[in-house]
Design brief:
The chain has two domains: 148 residues, Rossmann fold (3-Layer(aba) Sandwich); 62 residues, DNA polymerase, domain 1. Helices cover 41% and strands 12% of the residues. It has nine helices and eight strands. The longest helix has 14 residues. The chain is elongated and about 55 Å long. The termini are close together. The chain binds 2-phosphoglycolic acid and magnesium ion. The site of magnesium ion (MG) has 10 residues, from loops.
């Protein structure tokens, strides 16, 4: 049972869930590659590398470009030096701002659990003026573990006042990492289908899915009512 006696916390993934950040991540990867005279990757390639955090992103970039694996540390450092300023091409998905304020107005404590490092996470939330909506923000470098480990999501829920031993709430995300993380945490998972997943919807473990944030407030209410 996932019953909440007060409004349940609702925690969101970030890249591919609240924001379409792949164009900025893609552009920043290519700036770093250009510094090494490496030909650029396509947006589709880089989008497919997002979800597991910056270290995994660059392991995948290195495998795709044939760069030496020893280059990893330098590439990550060069990327991180630019990541917080990479916001010009990033957009909130349609109706995100409205859905967040409806949920906040209804009393749901809101949080973020992302594999994106905390610096760029806070920078992009500030850029869109929505940082203050979130009572807990866990980034990919906030803890030793990353999603799909349950620890970061559990930390987000407990940061919002949930019981640490039996966290209650709902997780909203776009990727295989998120689906597995929600299962590991034993909370319902709402899948946003327009993000960066590579697996067909029917093959992903999820409680319900949606493709428009206009549907989310009702979906959260229904999920909380039946869980
Ligand atoms: O930075 C990433 O690779 C993924 O970020 P996400 O957890 O917000 O999808
Ligand atoms: Mg994501």
């Amino acid at each position: 049972m996932n019953t909440c006696f007060a409004p349940c916390p609702v925690v969101f993934d970030l890249d591919g869930t609240l924001i379409d950040s792949a164009p900025d991540i893609h552009a920043t990867v290519n700036v770093v590659l250009r510094q090494r005279n490496v030909p650029p990757l396509t947006l589709d390639q880089v989008r497919g590398f997002i979800g597991g955090g910056v270290d995994l992103l660059w392991r995948r970039v290195i495998a795709a470009t044939g760069l030496p694996v020893e280059a990893h540390r330098d590439m990550v450092a060069a990327f991180m030096a630019r990541y917080e300023d990479a916001n010009a091409l990033t957009r909130l998905y349609p109706n995100v701002a409205d859905a967040l304020s409806v949920l906040a107005d209804r009393g749901y404590p809101l949080g973020i659990c992302t594999n994106k490092p905390l610096g760029p996470t806070r920078a992009i939330l500030d850029h869109f003026g929505i940082t203050g909506l979130f009572g807990a923000i866990i980034g990919g470098d906030s803890m030793p573990q990353k999603k799909p480990d349950a620890a970061p999501l559990r930390a987000a829920f407990t940061g919002l006042g949930a019981d640490p031993h039996s966290p209650k709430g709902v997780y909203v995300g776009d990727s295989e990492f998120d689906a597995e993380c929600a299962a590991n945490t034993a909370v319902p998972f709402l899948l946003y289908t327009r993000g960066y997943r590579k697996t067909p919807i029917g093959q992903m473990l999820h409680t319900a899915n949606f493709d428009d944030y206009g549907q989310l407030p009702l979906l959260v209410e229904e999920t909380v009512a039946i869980s």
